[in-house]
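Appendix B. One record, verbatim.
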Amino acid sequence: MTNQKSETRPEPERGILNLKFSGMAHGGEGLARDESGRVIFVPYAIAGEIARVEIVEARRGFARGRIVELLEASPARVEPRCPHFPPSPNGAGTRRSPYESNASPSPGGAGTRRSPYESNASPSPGGAGTRRSPYESNASPLPVTEPALSVSKGHPSLFCGGCQWQHIAYDAQLEFKTQIVREQFARLAKFPDAPVLPIIPARNQWFYRNNMQFVVNEHGRLCLQAHDSHLRVPIDECFVMHPALGEMHKTLELDPESFNGVTLRTGENTGDRFIILESDDPETPEIETDEPASIAFSSGDVTAPILGKERLTERVGARTFEISPDAFFQINTAMAEELVRLVGEFLAPCATDVLLDAYGGVGLFGLTFAPRVARVIEIEENPNALGDAQANAADLNNVEFHQGRVEQVLPKLDGKLDLAVVDPPRAGLDRFALDALAAKQPRTLVYVSCDPATLARDAARLIQHGYALERVQPVDMFPQTFHVECVAAFRRARFSGD
């Protein structure tokens, strides 16, 4: 093994460092330090590995690099399943990882297997196995803004940036995600002993996404963005989107002069399918399709159904939800059921309670628990999502709805709140929304978060407002990526003045 001194000795003529990676960063990169202590982030590196790294971007206090050569691979490194994911450097990861004791190997080797919905798709030009890896030591240095390149028969092709961790065995992904949540609380909330539980694994490691957004290139191909870039990668197959979306993706043909994007959605438990076509031209197009799916058209801020149903339906637990084409819904239906279970367990509602559902969307949490409480108050900014929630509450008589931003609506509400569930966007709670929520003093607050950094920040603020953090339960909603969902429970501390 290379000793510590040589692990960080630069080769000035090429800007190459030998680095040992000490952990995984919140953005999914491997994290290392050079001899000066500067942090270096490197995509597709894994904690514990040693690699030769080229610095491609240097900033004050940190740098970004790319692997030129992998000197010592992690036992958690596996061969990526998807041909649009960068192949492992130096052929590392072609063996089965000890973490993957019960995983089925890819038939024919990773990258050569066919998707269950790609029955007649052509393989990537030249075959996945002939592509040059961006890690190869004689590859040309890349511009800072460009993603890693591969070469197939001399033609460059870009790698998709949708997944970041397909090269990491799933059990190791789970360990890293739990560590990342704990590190965010230690660093941002100054809470090194935060009660972060081990992550709950996904029910499905592959084919779980019920919603996929694509851009359309000049050839009418459906594309995803390349890693760290706005460049477009034509997608032949995707191993994280639900098979129903894969079937639509395979058959969909678009005129690039008419459309610049498309969103595919499905109700996993209902079989519903929805296609949302996007264009800069506000004129509604004429559509012909044999696809058994409803179709909506989106231009600017307006999205309107033009064929089939007005809303997608999905069932979570005992309730069925109607979802407008532009309304948010959890992209992993199976794990949305797990979120609902956790929120109910953490709230522990009583029949006399008043429950606030802030950022309530189509009513996933508030309407599910309405039969168990006296009253539910939902606040939602998106008028279409709020209309969905009202339609979804047709069988309930104890739910009231308020359209607007939480920080504007909540301070105007009269009366007490016993319980609150919040599911804010990635940016977390607005500071004024958090202050207004704390002022209402619900005895229990359950926070559903898709970003552990903003959750940790907001946890520190809630603790300052007199709340105690009881537990944080990470949930793997997004296998093969660094993203992690968390459900956190806060209890109002009892002071003598309360």
